[in-house]
Protein TusC (Buttiauxella izardii), 119 residues
Amino acid sequence: MKRVAFIFKSSPHGSAAGREGLDALLATSALSEDIGVFFIGDGVLQLIPGQQPGLILARDYIATFRVLPLYDIEQCYICADSIRERGLSPESAWVLDVKPLESEALSEMLHHFDVVLTF
Protein backbone atom coordinates (compact mmCIF):
# COMPACT_ATOMS: atom_id res chain seq x y z
CA MET A 1 0.00 0.00 0.00
CA LYS A 2 1.36 3.41 -0.95
CA ARG A 3 1.90 6.11 1.66
CA VAL A 4 -0.05 9.23 0.66
CA ALA A 5 0.61 12.78 1.88
CA PHE A 6 -1.84 15.65 1.53
CA ILE A 7 -0.43 19.16 1.66
CA PHE A 8 -2.80 22.03 2.33
CA LYS A 9 -1.09 25.27 1.33
CA SER A 10 -4.02 27.43 0.24
CA SER A 11 -6.01 29.90 2.29
CA PRO A 12 -9.43 28.57 3.28
CA HIS A 13 -11.26 31.42 1.54
CA GLY A 14 -11.06 32.60 -2.05
CA SER A 15 -10.75 29.19 -3.69
CA ALA A 16 -12.18 25.70 -3.39
CA ALA A 17 -8.75 24.07 -2.99
CA GLY A 18 -9.16 23.38 0.73
CA ARG A 19 -12.58 21.81 0.36
CA GLU A 20 -11.48 19.76 -2.64
CA GLY A 21 -8.41 18.58 -0.76
CA LEU A 22 -10.49 17.58 2.24
CA ASP A 23 -12.89 15.63 -0.01
CA ALA A 24 -9.96 13.84 -1.67
CA LEU A 25 -8.41 13.12 1.72
CA LEU A 26 -11.57 11.55 3.09
CA ALA A 27 -12.06 9.48 -0.09
CA THR A 28 -8.44 8.28 0.00
CA SER A 29 -8.83 7.18 3.61
CA ALA A 30 -11.06 4.35 2.36
CA LEU A 31 -8.21 3.07 0.16
CA SER A 32 -5.09 3.67 2.24
CA GLU A 33 -4.24 3.37 5.90
CA ASP A 34 -1.01 5.34 5.73
CA ILE A 35 -1.95 8.97 5.18
CA GLY A 36 -0.15 12.10 6.33
CA VAL A 37 -1.66 15.57 6.37
CA PHE A 38 0.52 18.68 6.24
CA PHE A 39 -0.50 22.33 6.62
CA ILE A 40 2.04 24.81 5.25
CA GLY A 41 2.03 28.42 4.11
CA ASP A 42 -1.48 29.85 4.04
CA GLY A 43 -2.75 26.31 4.61
CA VAL A 44 -2.24 26.83 8.36
CA LEU A 45 -5.21 29.20 8.19
CA GLN A 46 -7.42 26.17 7.41
CA LEU A 47 -7.16 25.17 11.08
CA ILE A 48 -8.11 28.39 12.84
CA PRO A 49 -11.29 27.81 14.86
CA GLY A 50 -14.23 30.21 14.92
CA GLN A 51 -14.09 31.33 11.30
CA GLN A 52 -17.38 32.52 9.83
CA PRO A 53 -17.16 31.87 6.10
CA GLY A 54 -20.90 32.46 5.70
CA LEU A 55 -20.25 36.17 6.16
CA ILE A 56 -18.40 36.19 2.84
CA LEU A 57 -20.83 33.72 1.26
CA ALA A 58 -18.33 30.85 1.42
CA ARG A 59 -18.99 27.24 2.41
CA ASP A 60 -18.10 26.19 5.94
CA TYR A 61 -16.00 23.05 5.78
CA ILE A 62 -13.20 23.90 8.22
CA ALA A 63 -14.83 22.15 11.18
CA THR A 64 -14.85 18.96 9.08
CA PHE A 65 -11.10 18.63 9.70
CA ARG A 66 -12.08 17.57 13.24
CA VAL A 67 -13.36 14.22 11.95
CA LEU A 68 -10.01 13.06 10.54
CA PRO A 69 -9.24 10.91 13.62
CA LEU A 70 -12.55 9.10 13.04
CA TYR A 71 -11.14 8.08 9.64
CA ASP A 72 -7.93 6.85 11.35
CA ILE A 73 -5.98 9.80 9.97
CA GLU A 74 -3.66 10.67 12.81
CA GLN A 75 -0.44 11.82 11.13
CA CYS A 76 -1.21 15.55 11.03
CA TYR A 77 1.51 18.19 10.96
CA ILE A 78 1.62 21.98 10.78
CA CYS A 79 4.57 24.12 9.73
CA ALA A 80 5.83 26.07 12.74
CA ASP A 81 7.59 28.59 10.47
CA SER A 82 4.34 29.26 8.57
CA ILE A 83 2.50 29.75 11.86
CA ARG A 84 5.00 32.36 13.07
CA GLU A 85 5.08 34.13 9.67
CA ARG A 86 1.33 34.72 10.04
CA GLY A 87 1.62 36.09 13.57
CA LEU A 88 0.14 32.99 15.17
CA SER A 89 1.49 30.75 17.92
CA PRO A 90 2.28 27.01 17.63
CA GLU A 91 0.44 26.63 20.95
CA SER A 92 -2.77 28.05 19.48
CA ALA A 93 -5.97 26.02 19.62
CA TRP A 94 -6.52 24.43 16.23
CA VAL A 95 -9.60 22.61 14.90
CA LEU A 96 -7.44 19.49 14.55
CA ASP A 97 -4.76 18.02 16.79
CA VAL A 98 -1.60 18.76 14.79
CA LYS A 99 2.07 18.45 15.60
CA PRO A 100 4.10 21.60 14.81
CA LEU A 101 7.30 20.90 12.87
CA GLU A 102 10.00 23.26 11.68
CA SER A 103 10.33 23.47 7.87
CA GLU A 104 13.35 21.19 7.73
CA ALA A 105 11.72 18.44 9.82
CA LEU A 106 8.49 18.76 7.83
CA SER A 107 10.38 18.38 4.56
CA GLU A 108 12.17 15.31 5.90
CA MET A 109 8.84 13.80 6.99
CA LEU A 110 7.38 14.33 3.50
CA HIS A 111 10.19 12.24 1.97
CA HIS A 112 8.70 9.16 3.66
CA PHE A 113 5.57 9.30 1.48
CA ASP A 114 5.20 7.70 -1.96
CA VAL A 115 2.57 10.11 -3.28
CA VAL A 116 2.20 13.80 -2.41
CA LEU A 117 -0.98 15.71 -3.33
CA THR A 118 -1.10 19.48 -2.90
CA PHE A 119 -4.18 21.63 -2.42
